[in-house]
């Protein structure tokens, strides 16, 4: 649930389906929130940890950065898609290992705004060997967790 990295972090709290943390100090301080899927579809052998994360960095260097750990290496020519409730898909195009990001900060902010208003986030992806996945995340507690990390990183 992406909480393995949280062992070195300070927990701000659990807000519904979301956990909020800080890590580091000063301008290097990160404030982030994570959630695990409530449902996963797709039989991907040896699948690793799956979760979604929203990150801020103190001083505004990073704000509302959305990333997803898929638990597998994504297919090189198939974008991962994220959708809140019945809204249109947002593409996650940047890839590093099993993690995908949205390409630009304006779209990150749009996604966070949708997540604040929504009930569910559905992420669909394709593994490097062509197996489709679909992970559903609850947005219960998202707004409260976001407020906690925003306050902790001085972004209110």
Low-pLDDT windows of residues: none
Name the helicity range. Answer: 10-25%
- What fraction of the residues are assigned to beta strands by DSSP? 35-45%
Number of DSSP-assigned strands = 12
CATH architecture: Sandwich
**Overall average residue pLDDT:** 92
Structure in words:
By secondary structure, this protein is of the alpha+beta class. The protein has a single domain (5-152), classed as Invasion associated locus B (IalB) protein (Immunoglobulin-like, Sandwich). The protein has two helices and twelve strands, in the order ββββββββββαββα. The strands form two sheets. Strands 1-2-3-5-6-10-9 form a seven-stranded antiparallel beta sheet. It has a five-stranded antiparallel beta sheet with strand order 4-12-11-7-8. A hairpin with a 2-residue loop joins strand 9 and strand 10. The longest helix is centred in the last third of the chain and has 13 residues, at 105-117.
Summarize the structure.
This protein has helices at residues 105-117, 142-152; strands spanning 10-15, 18-23, 30-35, 39-41, 51-57, 62-69, 80-84, 90-92, 94-96, 99-101, 120-126, 132-138. The chain has 156 residues and is α+β, with helices and mostly antiparallel strands. It is globular, with a radius of gyration of 15 Å.
Compile the SSE list and pairings:
Elements: E1 10-15, E2 18-23, E3 30-35, E4 39-41, E5 51-57, E6 62-69, E7 80-84, E8 90-92, E9 94-96, E10 99-101, H1 105-117, E11 120-126, E12 132-138, H2 142-152
Antiparallel strand pairs: 1-2, 2-3, 3-5, 4-12, 5-6, 6-10, 7-8, 7-11, 9-10, 11-12
């Amino acid at each position: 649930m992406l909480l393995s990295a949280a062992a070195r972090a300070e927990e701000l709290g659990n807000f519904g389906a979301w956990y909020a943390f800080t890590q580091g100090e000063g301008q290097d301080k990160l404030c982030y929130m994570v959630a695990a899927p409530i449902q996963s579809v797709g039989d991907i052998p040896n699948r690793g940890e799956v979760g979604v994360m929203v990150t801020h960095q103190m001083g505004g260097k990073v704000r509302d950065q959305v990333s997803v750990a898929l638990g597998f290496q994504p297919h090189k020519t198939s974008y991962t898609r994220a959708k809140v409730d019945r809204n249109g898909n947002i593409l996650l195009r940047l890839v590093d290992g099993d993690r995908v990001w949205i390409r630009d900060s304006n779209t990150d902010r749009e996604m966070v705004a949708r997540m604040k208003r929504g009930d569910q986030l559905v992420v669909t992806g394709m593994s490097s060997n062509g197996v489709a996945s679909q992970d559903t995340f609850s947005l219960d507690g998202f707004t409260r967790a976001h407020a906690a990390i925003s306050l902790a990183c001085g972004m209110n």
